[in-house]
Design a protein that fits this description.
The chain is an alpha/beta fold. It is built from 14 helices and 10 strands. The strands form 2 sheets. Strands 3-2-1-4-5-6 form a 6-stranded parallel beta sheet, with helices on both faces. The protein is globular. The termini are far apart. Bound molecules: nicotinamide-adenine-dinucleotide and magnesium ion. Nicotinamide-adenine-dinucleotide binds next to helix 1, strand 2, helix 4 and helix 8. Magnesium ion binds next to helix 6.
Length: 353
């Protein structure tokens, strides 16, 4: 039996993970956690609502941690797993973006592995098959472009949270859905790919593929490119990460190629500045990615609450990022402090109520 600790069990990823675990005879939940939503209907010997996730993990002694918490709140669980060499099935990209350097150091010490759950990174992981970075020409992270693909800045002036929450291809939690609308999600994913695969930023590209059938691809130095295709359904990367390297069956139908039209285009980085802001934060390094993430969490929260216009999200994040010192974090306390300071800077950039 493989014992899974599921963090973020009541969320979009969490619910789909429970389905995968229940369908597989060799997977069982040893612990489940949520932030504030009750876990009454989740069948796990240890359950925790709120509180310290690392205490739960200490008690649960899992074989794999599926971190499906949303936001920086997942950082301690990510570091817990990496430090101990426990498999980390990672959906919580924010923790790797914010704490990338600390996470890689913990991974090195712990000797374990990260099994990406984010669909693009699961795709890249499968195309790469552990190959060395020097064999890679470019990683190409694909994105749908979100609900506002093709719109001009003028057409984004008055968009509401409801409109931004209507994603064309994926059903996800509110935070990542807004990130998809601003393209901040692709920005976070570029940084995530950099840390997961050790490829420099100038060799990580973003391409729009509106139907989300091509989940990402790798161009290799010999001219071959490998792409990962499939219907957009998170049960596939969740199952892949939890059953790796088994590739267990899922209920998905086989891909009908004759019904597909695949079109690719460059992202509109002028209308959607979050992608370039994330890239710049990644290239700056230190705690700049942490500051980007923290300011984005604040701005997304304010947009969802109706306190911030859609077009002001990149302004708030850009200003906070310019004001943040970006100094490297020596330890997790430094990182938590950098996160706190960036949140404060972003708060100051919000319109007064
Ligand atoms: P969601 O909002 O649907 O669920 C979030 C879960 O995290 C909930 O169970 C919530 O209770 C829990 N949570 C929040 N704060 C917590 C805390 N402090 N302690 C413990 N639990 C806490 O979010 P989601 O869409 O499932 O996304 C989860 C993560 O997976 C995010 O990092 C997101 O970027 C990533 N991801 C999601 C998808 C998707 O399809 N939903 C795809 C790729 C990556
Ligand atoms: Mg993704």
């Amino acid at each position: 039996m493989k014992r899974v600790a599921l963090l973020g069990a009541t969320g979009s990823i969490g619910r789909q993970a429970i389905e995968i675990v229940e369908a597989h005879p060799r997977l069982e939940l040893c612990a489940a956690a949520s932030g504030s939503t009750p876990l009454d209907d989740v069948d796990a010997p240890l359950r925790q609502v709120g509180g310290d996730l690392t205490e739960l993990l200490d008690r649960a002694e899992p074989d794999v941690v599926l971190n499906a918490v949303v936001g920086f709140a997942g950082i301690h669980a990510t570091l817990w797993a990496l430090e101990r060499g426990v498999d980390l099935a990672l959906a919580n990209k924010e923790s790797l973006v914010a704490g990338g350097d600390l996470a890689l150091a913990a991974l090195e010490r712990g000797g374990g592995r990260i099994l990406p759950v984010d669909s693009e990174h699961s795709a890249l992981f499968q195309c790469l098959e552990g190959r060395a970075p020097e064999q890679v020409d470019t990683l190409v992270v694909t994105g749908s472009g979100g609900p506002f693909r093709g719109r001009s800045r003028d057409e984004l002036e008055d968009v509401t949270p409801e409109q931004a929450l209507a994603h064309p291809t994926w059903q996800m939690g509110p935070k990542i859905t807004i990130d998809s609308a601003t393209l901040a999600n692709k920005g976070l994913e570029v940084i995530e790919a950099h840390y997961l695969f050790g490829i420099p930023y100038d060799r990580i590209e973003v391409v729009i593929q509106p139907t989300s059938i091509v989940h990402s691809l790798v161009r290799f130095r010999d001219g071959a490119s490998l792409a990962h295709l499939g219907y957009p359904d998170m049960r596939v990367p969740i199952s892949y990460a939890l059953t790796y390297p088994e590739r267990a069956a899922t209920p998905l139908p086989p891909l009908d190629l004759t019904a597909l039209a695949l079109e690719f285009s460059a992202p509109d980085t002028e209308t959607f500045p979050m992608l370039a802001l994330a890239r710049a934060a990644g290239e700056r390094g230190g705690t700049a990615p942490c500051a980007f993430n923290a300011a984005n969490e604040v701005a997304v929260g304010a947009f969802l609450d109706g306190r911030l216009p859609f077009l002001a999200v990149p302004e708030v994040v850009g200003d906070a990022l310019s004001a943040a010192d970006g100094a490297p974090a020596r330890d997790v306390d430094d990182l938590v402090e950098a996160d706190r300071l960036a949140r404060e800077l972003a708060q100051r950039g919000l319109p007064v109520a």
